[in-house]
Amino acid sequence: MAGKTNDDLSLELFIVLARAYNSVVAHSTRDIQSHGLNTTEFGVLDLLYHKGPQPLQKIGEKVLISSGNITYVADKLQKKNLLARRASPDDRRVIFAELTEEGRAFFEKIFPHHQQVLVHAVEGLGMEEKRQAVELLKKLGLSAEDSFKSGRAE
């Protein structure tokens, strides 16, 4: 990479990062769709499985979808009997979503395979390379977030 400027390397990094992300996500998406779910539905089930019942408003924030969309996704999962809604005992305005027994069993059945799909998707890197990638990508993400919030470089 001799002779490349910082600008050239920055652009190349962006392109390589985007292509790698798309390739890894393709593995995940194909597996999720094979279970009759979309990625948002899977994200909601994953959150509820690992974090327990959540207020609908918080689910939208955590899986990065709008409040209108979380209602739609919750409706779809409820129709599949994977999710149930219940009112908060402390505040009637707050509605919690939680996995049904069927939802928990379904997720427990599909998640181990999904995890292996992800392991396979990133097997091009060894253990130490994965550690380095995690460290570097966290650093990159935090720096990009900070500069975005401050409005720098725009």
From TrEMBL:
<keyword id="KW-0805">Transcription regulation</keyword>
<dbReference type="InterPro" id="IPR036388">
    <property type="entry name" value="WH-like_DNA-bd_sf"/>
</dbReference>
<protein>
    <submittedName>
        <fullName>MarR family transcriptional regulator</fullName>
    </submittedName>
</protein>
<dbReference type="InterPro" id="IPR000835">
    <property type="entry name" value="HTH_MarR-typ"/>
</dbReference>
<keyword id="KW-0804">Transcription</keyword>
<dbReference type="Pfam" id="PF01047">
    <property type="entry name" value="MarR"/>
</dbReference>
<dbReference type="InterPro" id="IPR039422">
    <property type="entry name" value="MarR/SlyA-like"/>
</dbReference>
<dbReference type="InterPro" id="IPR036390">
    <property type="entry name" value="WH_DNA-bd_sf"/>
</dbReference>
<feature type="domain" description="HTH marR-type">
    <location>
        <begin position="10"/>
        <end position="142"/>
    </location>
</feature>
<keyword id="KW-0238">DNA-binding</keyword>
